[in-house]
């Protein structure tokens, strides 16, 4: 018999969801069978799959060892001895990390485990702020993601409560994200709003822009502002009013100013003289503007966090200060 003591990180979810995470070898049919046979109990009593767990509950599983002893792939964070996490801000609920260009946030099709979330989990585990055994179904998780070659702020939730709140606030557009980019040319006008429809091509891993709505396309809106220009390059700040795949890259290319280093939406011949082969794009600023009750995260309302050290700004516009 195994017991799981429910903490605040595991509370609020249905029992069947909890079991799906903690005992993945237990099928749905077997779960319902063992519920009927009282081999799965809550606090020593018969229960239902729809029961919502609360802190203090004890989940008791009278199941064969084979459900628990099957070989499992070790968690990636346990293999990281020196976590690479550049902390912008941290408290008991969240961690804001400055992701380096070239690092993936989650495992991609290449299947590697050297990911931002693995390094964040290793950092929290080694610092003693996260104990995996204390929350059977929860692990620190990312609330947003950015492309491999884009750097900048990524939000990690350290508690299940923070993850639920932030996911809701992101969906309702209560977080403001600003990006810095270096583009070829000088945007005309110097600032403005780009608004059209964006459709993602999963086969080509690329997006196309359309002036009218077409099947599969979504509204895409970017506000941009030129901060400085030097020679054939400009430093531009972009604010995402919608969060679509490759939105800034496609939008800036659409006005004749592709991002420096972007071979997908630009032209590599223009990038080659600079030796840049990854887009010069950085999620440098994050602001919280809550319009609804954010519960335990209400203290973040009105706060802005920025990355001051953006490599391509120092390289191409050293006189400009963020």
UniProtKB/TrEMBL annotation:
GO molecular function annotation: catalytic activity, acting on RNA; pseudouridine synthase activity; RNA binding
EC number from the UniProt entry: 5.4.99.-
Top-level taxonomic group: Bacteria
Alphabetized SUPFAM superfamilies for the sequence: Alpha-L RNA-binding motif (SSF55174), Pseudouridine synthase (SSF55120)
Matching InterPro entries: PsdUridine_synth_cat_dom_sf, PsdUridine_synth_RluC/D, PsdUridine_synth_RsuA/RluA, RluA_PseudoU_synthase, S4_RNA-bd_sf
UniProt xrefs under CDD domains: PseudoU_synth_RluA_like, S4
Occurrences of domain Pseudouridine synthase RsuA/RluA-like (ranges): 93-254
GO process annotations (BP): pseudouridine synthesis; RNA processing
The UniProt record lists the keyword Cell inner membrane: no
Record carries keyword Isomerase: yes
Matching PROSITE patterns: S4
A UniProt-annotated Pfam family: PseudoU_synth_2
Active-site residues annotated for this sequence: 147
Alphabetic keyword roster: Isomerase, RNA-binding
Catalytically driven reaction(s): a uridine in RNA = a pseudouridine in RNA
Listed PANTHER family: MITOCHONDRIAL RNA PSEUDOURIDINE SYNTHASE, PSEUDOURIDYLATE SYNTHASE RPUSD4, MITOCHONDRIAL
Function: Responsible for synthesis of pseudouridine from uracil.
Family according to the record: Belongs to the pseudouridine synthase RluA family.
Protein known as: Pseudouridine synthase
Species this protein is from: Agathobaculum faecis
């Amino acid at each position: 018999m195994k017991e799981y003591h429910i903490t605040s990180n595991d509370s609020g979810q249905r029992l069947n969801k909890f079991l799906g995470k903690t005992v993945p070898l237990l099928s749905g049919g077997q779960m319902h069978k063992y519920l009927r046979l009282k081999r799965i109990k809550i606090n020593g009593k018969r229960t239902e799959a729809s029961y919502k767990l609360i802190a203090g509950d004890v989940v008791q599983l009278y199941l064969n060892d084979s459900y628990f002893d099957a070989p499992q792939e070790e968690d990636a964070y346990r293999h990281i001895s020196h976590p690479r996490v550049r902390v912008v801000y941290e408290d008991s609920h969240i961690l804001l990390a400055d992701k380096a260009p070239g690092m993936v946030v989650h495992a991609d099709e290449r299947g590697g485990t050297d990911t931002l979330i693995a390094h964040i989990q290793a950092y929290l585990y080694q610092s003693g702020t996260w104990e995996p055994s204390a929350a059977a179904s929860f692990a620190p998780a990312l609330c947003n993601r950015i492309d491999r070659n884009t750097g900048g702020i990524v939000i990690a939730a350290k508690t299940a409560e923070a993850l639920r709140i932030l996911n809701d606030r992101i969906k309702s557009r209560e977080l403001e994200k600003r990006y810095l980019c270096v583009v070829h040319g000088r945007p005309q006008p110097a600032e403005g709003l780009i608004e059209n429809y964006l459709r993602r091509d999963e086969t080509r891993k690329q997006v196309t822009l359309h002036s009218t709505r077409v099947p599969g396309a979504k509204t895409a809106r970017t506000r941009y502002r030129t901060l400085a220009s030097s020679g054939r390059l400009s430093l531009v700040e972009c604010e995402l009013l919608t969060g679509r795949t490759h939105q800034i890259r496609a939008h800036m290319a659409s006005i004749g100013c592709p991002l420096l280093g972007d071979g997908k939406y630009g032209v590599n011949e223009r990038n080659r003289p600079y030796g840049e082969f990854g887009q010069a794009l950085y999620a440098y600023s994050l602001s919280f503007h809550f319009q609804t009750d954010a519960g335990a995260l209400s203290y973040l309302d009105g706060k802005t966090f920025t990355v001051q050290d953006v490599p391509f700004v120092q390289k191409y516009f050293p006189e400009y200060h963020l």
